[in-house]
User: Which sequence fits this backbone?
């Protein structure tokens, strides 16, 4: 009787220890506890696989969150823009070219005025009219050089603004957080280069216009000089020597 009670107590204690340690036990109807190693190993393997699946899902969620953050950065706009100042500088250069004195940059006006003043100038008028024409052409050449100097001054004045804009854009490009910001910074740098090319084109055009008018004026002056010399030497109309008294007796 005492041995039976002791056996029951030991069995109950062993069962409690197995439960506390997480060991799966089989409890038959007559309350005898049996430890199954294969069942225990299968449960451990199932729990490990479940944990690995959970870790994979967590990594996928992290990757998705990182991808969304990167996409948001790529779609962020560049906070810096220099397009309006560049367009203002181009408009200023265009206004200077539009205010060109004398023969401007209009093709029809060039054909009309150049033909009148240089190509088809009237050499049948009086000496006074020829002098007035020569003076008009000279004034046109001087005005063209003045216009060229104005355009050059405007282009030089834009250099400092272009330098500041380029520095700001390079800094913004280097600190861009996404592809869109980098692309926008690059596009604005191209716009800055276009503005500088526009200033260079305007300067070359203005200086070339001044040189062309000066050369045309020189050619017209030679032609007029030949006509004046012909008139001077023409029989009956040219120079007639007369006696001139230099000193009084």
Assistant:
């Amino acid at each position: 009787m005492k041995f039976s009670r002791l056996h029951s107590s030991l069995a109950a204690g062993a069962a409690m220890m197995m439960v506390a340690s997480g060991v799966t036990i089989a409890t038959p109807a007559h309350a005898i506890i049996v430890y199954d190693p294969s069942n225990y190993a299968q449960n451990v393997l199932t729990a490990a696989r479940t944990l690995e699946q959970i870790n994979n899902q967590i990594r996928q969620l992290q990757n998705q969150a990182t991808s969304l953050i990167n996409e948001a950065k790529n779609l962020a706009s560049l906070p810096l823009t220099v397009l309006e100042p560049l367009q203002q500088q181009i408009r200023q250069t265009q206004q200077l070219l539009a205010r060109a004195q004398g023969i401007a940059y209009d093709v029809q006006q060039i054909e009309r005025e150049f033909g009148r003043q240089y190509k088809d100038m009237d050499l049948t008028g009086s000496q006074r009219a020829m002098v007035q024409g020569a003076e008009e052409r000279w004034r046109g050449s001087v005005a063209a050089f003045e216009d060229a100097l104005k355009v050059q001054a405007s282009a030089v004045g834009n250099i400092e603004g272009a330098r500041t804009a380029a520095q700001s854009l390079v800094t913004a490009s280097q600190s861009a957080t996404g592809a869109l910001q980098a692309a926008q910074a690059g596009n604005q740098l191209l716009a800055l280069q276009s503005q500088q090319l526009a200033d260079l084109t305007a300067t070359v055009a203005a200086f070339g216009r001044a040189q062309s008018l000066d050369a045309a004026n020189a050619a017209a002056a030679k032609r007029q000089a030949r006509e004046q010399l012909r008139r001077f030497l023409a029989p009956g109309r040219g120079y007639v020597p007369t006696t001139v008294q230099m000193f009084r007796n």
Observations:
- The chain has a mean pLDDT of 77.
- Strands lie at 25-26, 34-35.
- The first helix runs from residue 2 to 20.
- The chain has two domains: 2-74, 83-233.
